[in-house]
Amino acid sequence: MSPPPSPGWPAPRRPAPSHPVNTQPPQPPLDFEYRTQSQRVLFGTGRAAELLARVLAEPGGLPGSASTSGSTNASGRTSTPGSDAPRVMVIASRRELERSTGVLGGIRPAAIFDDVVQHVPVESAERARQAARDARIDVLVPIGGGSAIGLAKAVARAEGLPIVAVPTTYSGSEATAVWGQVEHGVKTTGFDPRVLPGTVIYDAELSRALPRDLSVSSGLNALAHGIDALWAPGKNPVSSTIAAEAIRMLAHALPLIADDPGDLAAREEALYGAYLSASAFSSAGSGLHHKICHVLGGTFGLPHSETHAIVLPHVVAFNVPAAPEAEALLARALGAAAAAADLTEVPGPAGTPAEPPTAVESLVALSDRLHAPTALRDFGFREEDITRAVALIVPAAPPSNPRPVTPEALTRLLHDAWSGDAPVSPGALPR
C-alpha cells in the first residue's frame, strides 16, 4: 500500500509503474572535471556605450580587479572605491576606432593604442605595456577581434590590469584565459587567469560593419573552438554540451549573415554562439586543430580566421573515424547547415536506403554554402613549407588526440589543406 501524500503536495495522478521507466542501457558512472571561470558577460544590442560607461563607473573597484579597496596596480596608481574615474587605455586598430567611435560615449581615454597586429608580436606587446605604464592606466578596454583582445591580454599579464572587452568579431578570445605571443617566428601560448577579461560587452550592432568574407571566416574560427573542444585533452560532458549548442547556433546563423550581412538577429545569434563555443574551448583546452593553426599563423604569418576556416574540415575528417561519439554529436549539431544546403541525405548503393550526411559532409556543405576559403596556398603558404610545419606541429599535438598524429598523416592533411583538395580520413572506407 502506498504511503499517503505529504501535506501540501498533490496526490499522485497514477500509480507508480511496476517496471523501470528508463529502458536505456545503463551508462557508466560520471567521472569528470569541469572548470568554470569568474567573468561577467553583458549582452545588449545598441547598448555598448551605455554598458561600458556603467561598468567603468561602478563603485567597489574595477571589474576583474583582485581587490576592491586601495590597491596599487603594476603601473603604480592606487585605485580606491569612490575615487576619481579610472584611467582607461583603449586598444583598437585604426579602422576599428573609426567604426566604433560611439562605443566610448563620454569616456575620455587616458591613452589609445592602435598598433594592433595579428598574433601579438612581442615588440608590439612591449610597446603597449610601456604605453600603459607611461599613462598610469587602471583598466584596458580592447575593442575589436582576437588581435586587439590578445594584445590587451599581453599587457594585463605583465601589468596586472583588468580588462573590459568589447568584441566586434567572433574570435572568442574574450571568453578565455588563453594568451598568445609571437617571438622570433614562434608562437607561444599559455593559460593565465590574470588575462581573462573581467567583463565582456557584446553588442551585435558593432559586428554589422564586419565585411561578409571576414564574418564568414571569423564565424568558422568560432565554430572551430566548439569542434576542437569535442576531443581536447580536458573534454567533459558539460563542455561538450555547451559546444554542441554553440555549433548548432553558428551553423544556423552564419549562412544568414552570408546572405545578408545586415541581419541583426543572425549577428546576435552568432555572437552568442561564439561566446558559448569559446567557453567550451576554455574548459576543454586546445585540441589538434588549434595546435596546427597556431604554428601556421605564428611561424608562417597566415591570417588567423582564414587559416582556421581552411584547416577545420581536414582535422575533422582526420579525427572522426576514431571519435564516434564526437562525430555523432557534431553531425546532429550541424544538421541545420546540412538542411540549408539541401544535403539532408546521401544516396546509398542501388537498392539500399539513403544515409544521413556525416559530420564531415555537413561541415563541407556549410563551408561551400558560405563560399569559405579552401586553400592555404591562396594566403601565401608554400608547398615547401609543409615539412617545416609538420616538424613544429607533431611535438605539440595533444597525446590524447583520438588519432595518433604521425608525420606522414599530418603531411597528407596539410598538403590537402594547402592545395584545397577535399578533406580525407586516412584509412577510412569510402561510403
From TrEMBL:
Cross-referenced InterPro entries, in alphabetical order? ADH_Fe/GldA, ADH_Fe_C, Alcohol_dehydrogenase_Fe, MAR
Alcohol dehydrogenase iron-type/glycerol dehydrogenase GldA domain sequence ranges: 97-203
The record's CDD domains line, in alphabetical order, gives: MAR
The annotated regions of Pro residues compositional bias extend over: 1-29
Transmembrane stretches, start-end: none
Molecular-function annotations in GO: alcohol dehydrogenase (NAD+) activity; maleylacetate reductase activity; metal ion binding
Record's keyword terms, sorted: NAD, Oxidoreductase
Q: Which segments of the protein form a coiled coil according to its record? A: none
Organism's domain of life?
Bacteria
Which portions of the sequence form the region Disordered?
A: 1-32, 60-86
**Keyword Transit peptide: yes or no?**
no
Q: Specify residue ranges for compositional bias: Low complexity.
A: 60-80
**UniProt domain Fe-containing alcohol dehydrogenase-like C-terminal: residue ranges:** 216-418
Family from the record: Belongs to the iron-containing alcohol dehydrogenase family.
This chain belongs to which protein, by name? Maleylacetate reductase
Q: Which species is the source of this protein?
A: Cryobacterium shii
Phylogenetic classification of the source organism: Bacteria, Bacillati, Actinomycetota, Actinomycetes, Micrococcales
